[in-house]
Amino acid sequence: MSEIMEKIRRMTIEEQVGQLFTFYNTGLQFSDFAKRMIADYKAGGMFLDMGSLDHPEQVHWLTSDMQAASLNEGSGIPLFISADFVAGAGCKLKNGGAVHFPKNKAVGAAGDEALAYESGRVTAEESLVMGVNFNYSPVVDINNNPLNPVIGTHSFGEDRDEVSAMGCAVIRGYQDHGMIATAKHFPGHGDTQVDSHFDLPVLPFDRARLDSFELVPFRKSIEAGVDAVMVGHIAVPALDDSGMPASLSYKMTTGLLREELGFEGLIVTDGLSMKGVTSKFTQAEACVLALKAGADILLAHARNVEEAGPMVEAVLTAVRSGELTAERIVQSVERVMSMKAKYRLLPETFRIREFDSHAVNRQESEAVSARLARKAALGVNGFAPLKGSGIEEPRRWTLLWDRQVERFAELVRETGILTAERKLDSYADVKASLEGGTPSGPVIVALTHNKRMDADVLQALNKAAAEHPGDIVLVHFGSSYDLEHTPDVPALLLYDRAPSLQQAAAEKLFGSY
To answer: Which stretches make up the Glycoside hydrolase family 3 N-terminal domain (predicted)?
Structure first.
């Protein structure tokens, strides 16, 4: 019997089931809820949502407390501590302190696999300093649907080969440097018009289309050695006509992902509180169904102990009744324990690190983000850098800017070319600003949104540009699909508002590179 199997044999069924649960942590401190999940339910993992992430040292304090509790009062086994660091370890930190990379769409636009790998390396190194060892990233969905309400700029793009190449580069960057990567959202959430947070999306395509498109980046990720795949709450009638989301479907999770595609790593559910599941099932029911389908890790969102208890008890009851076999539980526990062994997350190999402030936000790490941003920035619709030097008096501009791109506004202000500026509460306010009368003289409009912008706002901007040719420039920190509504507006496309992209936008606007 292997050493791993010997450890599993010594576990109680409660301890085995506990290893399959990852619970959300929602606060900055080590809460009583988290203590209970670790001590009473022997949880195998904790997920840090945005409310848990303030600055690197705070995250380190939190994860260190969690790991100490797991070792001393919990299962005795180190935790998987996961986060959605989809754009660097700094992307979700409220007060920064680690590198915030451009979103995947900008990485795809940059088209540099070596830089994509480096972004993964930096993210892994900074995450581990904070105690995060498992990243629910990268998104390898192909976003070829302009109406997709959720994936958008989280995707590397709409070309399957580009998405595959960039996704694999990031995966290697994470895993070569000690952090588990997760390819998501299997079998593909890109060509959908429903957000699985709010309802169940359906992929209406036949097997031939899925094989030649949606599944390609997942196949490539598996070939690249990805250690985890997150299964989405997405129905695929061509492969399972029951209407079940893939996350709860044996045909999708075990039949397709495990057996046909040959994936041997960890299968993680997407968050089980999402409406793609809870519109039909309770989280407790979903936990049992996901394990029956073949999942290894249940991403369970309980707001309190009273909600968590029934989820764990539902799995234990299913085992005791024979609905779930003990063998099925052991299969997943073995995968969990083997992965923990691989990443030095067993008691004999694990140690809680001291926080090293010099290992995060390094200048050379920020330089990787800056290089990606400069490669991603793209001028379209006849965009040309503004001329502000030479013998001629430079043109004086008005700046209309979304409050979320303050760094960009600061950099433009420093050039001295502005006669006026107006801060907008959101991109939508630009319509009223323009309809109230275009400012005298030329205007720089800087807008951002994490989803597609309303067409009527963009059409108002296009109308103003058509009426005042050469007097409006759009600096767009959002979806490239938005620009179908602004054909008359010279524009600089950045895809996202990461700090490095705001810097690159200012540089490109004034011809600095």
So the answer is: 12-338
Same domain, 396 and 328: no
Classify residue 6: in a domain, yes or no.
Answer: no
DSSP single-letter state for residue 247:
G
Picking from 314, 317, 289, 318, the residue whose alpha carbon sits closest to that of residue 302 is 314
Same structural domain, 341 and 450: no
- 390 pLDDT higher than 70: no
Residue 367 forms part of a structural domain = no
Question: Is 70 exceeded by the pLDDT of residue 149?
Answer: no
H-assigned helices in 294-325: 305-321
Rg of the chain (C-alpha set): 24
Please say which residue of 352, 369, 392 terminates a domain: 352
Flag whether the pTM goes above 0.90: yes
Indicate whether 342 and 384 sit together in one domain.
Answer: no
Q: Is the pLDDT assigned to residue 488 strictly greater than 60?
A: yes
Residues 6 or more apart in contact with residue 331 via CB below 8 angstroms: none
Q: Do 187 and 226 fall within a single domain?
A: yes
Q: Which candidate, 301, 289, 275, 278, places its Cα nearest to that of 46?
A: 301
Range of the domain at 451: 377-509
265 C-beta neighbours (distance < 10 Å), count = 22
Residue 145 has pLDDT above 90, yes or no: no
pLDDT of residue 513: 60
Which residues participate in catalysis according to the annotation?
197, 270
Please tell me the distance from the alpha carbon of residue 483 to that of residue 24, in angstroms, as a whole number.
Answer: 37
Q: In this structure, what are the phi and psi dihedrals at residue 427, rounded to the nearest 5 degrees?
A: -60, -30
Q: Is residue 126 part of a domain?
A: yes
d(CA 267, CA 270) in angstroms, rounded, equals 10
Euclidean distance between CA atoms 143 and 145, whole angstroms? 6
- Work out the average pLDDT over 265-280: 90
162 and 65: one domain? Answer: yes
Residue 87 forms part of a structural domain? yes
**8 A C-beta contact, residue 69 and residue 30:** yes
Q: Tell me what the mean pLDDT of segment 245-262 comes to.
A: 96
pLDDT digits (tens, 9 = 90+) for 81-97: 999 999 999 999 999 99
